[in-house]
Amino acid sequence: MSSASDSTMKSSSGFVVAAPRSGSGKTTVTLGLLAALRRRGLIVAPAKTGPDYIDPVFLGRAAGREAINLDPWAMAPDQVRALAAQHATGADCLVVEGVMGLFDASADGQGSTADLAAALDLPVVFVVDADRQSQSVAPLVAGFAHWRPDVTIAGLILNRVATARHERMLVSALAATGIPLLGAIPRRPELVIPERHLGLVLPGEVDGFGPFLDIAAHAVADYVDLDALLALGAPAPSAEAAPKTLPPLGQHVAIARDAAFAFLYPHLLDGWRSAGAELSFFSPLADEGPAASADAVFLPGGYPELHGPVLAAATSFHAGLRAARDRHALIYGECGGFMALGEALVDKDGVGHAMAGLLPVTTRIDRPKRVLGYRRLLHESALPWPTGLNGHEFHYSSAKQTGLPPLFEALDAEGIRQLPMGGQLGRVMGSYAHVIAAP
Asked: Can you tell me the distance from the alpha carbon of 428 to that of 210, in angstroms, rounded to the nearest whole number?
């Protein structure tokens, strides 16, 4: 394995970190691996399977390098490979964290971590929660290892091992699988990611994340054979062509970015820059408006519901949006951005807060109901994107609107028609969908 100093002269290797199910400690182990490898002086390129916005921020914090999303449901295979190749360039190792269990997918059976590992031709490092089991771990691992011939479980990491005797029992049982055991991490209460609001709070808002990351890095360095782990990695995909992404929203795109509007896919911004667009950023929480020269404004998702009073008082932000509308700039909001474009937002306590008022929409989160899933989106709008798009929806709030033409007609992953999404008024538009890619 190359060092950081000569990484640009050698190709990167890579692997996928997966588990039998959610809650196995996959994220904790991945964070520890990234931090431990980084402390060895390696340049590590982190990535996350699927549409998750939060885990990539944690992964990037651990690796000291921005993480990207690789979504085998929403992205075409050639885009997935091209993005992975681009991201791995100049790095020693590409580390991709999976989502849920290895074979868990969307409702149509597509988009699993296994699908991504197969598309990238990368081996799987399998994290198994050993708590409350001993010899039964062997048939569990054997079943996963032989389920798909195009997916290779190349190594195992046991998590939450209780005692030395427990470890001996596990090791003895797993010998029959023939899969190398890379390490056994003991059960430690401090190896739990600090509680996150609804599972969705950024690292800077999690008390104790820095100390937790130190503990995870030391645990991985102490109990996992990192040399063996690095040796099992396969070559990362090579860059055959630049990844195809959605066109920029304009020549100069002003993008809201702060704690209330933090959900941005790096591959979209990179694609827009590569297409020659100028990107500028502003903070609505600091009462900043979009640049006066911008011909497009993007309000991404985030947590406006946690900042209702501040956003309601952000008069310069509101005035800037109205000025952009009046000069016929394209204004597009996703999820939290869609909420901010409305007339009012009702927070969890039932208190209403005035928003920008560019769309006749009121959103509320005082009656939370989770809406979650992939979406195929059709549109006839000013968006400079193909009429068919792939996206994802995840929110607890709801929207009430009257007489507003929808932005998207939507199908779920199974092709079942959903209610029309969002709304558009001239060149102002938004919805709860997070757009990821064209099919």
From this structure: 40
Distance, CA of 332 to CA of 435 (rounded, Å):
11
* Block residue for tokens 């509680």: 195
Contact 271/277 with Cβ under 8 angstroms?
no
H or E, element range at 323: helix 315-326
Question: Average pLDDT for residues 141-150, to the nearest whole number?
Answer: 98
For residue 7, what pLDDT is reported? 38
pTM recorded for the entire structure: 0.93
Both tokens of 44, joined, read 């590590």
Beta pairing class for 13-18 and 124-129 = parallel
What average pLDDT does this structure show over 29-37?
98
Q: Which residue has the tokens 């979650």?
A: 372
The amino acid present at 340, given as its one-letter code, is: A
All structural domains of the chain? 9-235 (3.40.50.300), 252-437 (3.40.50.880)
Torsional sign, CA 80, 232, 47, 74 = positive
Residues 194-244 pLDDT 10s:
655 445 566 666 667 889 999 999 999 999 999 999 999 999 998 777 898
Strands of 398-401's sheet in order across:
352-354, 344-346, 361-364, 398-401
- The answer for residues whose C-beta is within 8 angstroms of residue 72's C-beta and 6 or more apart is 49, 80, 110, 111, 112, 115, 116, 119
How far, in Å, CA of 409 to CA of 423, rounded?
Answer: 11
Residues identified as active-site: 335
User: How many angstroms separate the CA atoms of 137 and 279, rounded?
Assistant: 50
Percent of the residues in the chain that have a pLDDT greater than 90, as a whole number: 88
Beta pairing partners, 47:
68, 96
In this prediction, residue 191 carries a pLDDT of 85
User: Tell me, what DSSP letter sits at residue 193?
Assistant: P
Residue with tokens 């130190």: 214
207: DSSP letter? T
What is the spatial distance between Cα 107 and Cα 21, in angstroms, rounded to a whole number? 16
Tell me how far apart the alpha carbons of residues 151 and 380 are, in angstroms, rounded to a whole number. Answer: 40
Task: Say how many Å lie between the first and final Cα of the chain, rounded.
Answer: 36
Q: Where are the alpha helices (DSSP H) in 40-145?
A: 54-63, 77-88, 113-120, 137-145
Quick one: pLDDT at residue 5? 39
Report CA-CA distances (Å) from 420 to 379, 408, 423, 430.
10, 6, 9, 12
Maximal CA-CA distance, the chain: 71
3-state DSSP call for residue 299?
strand
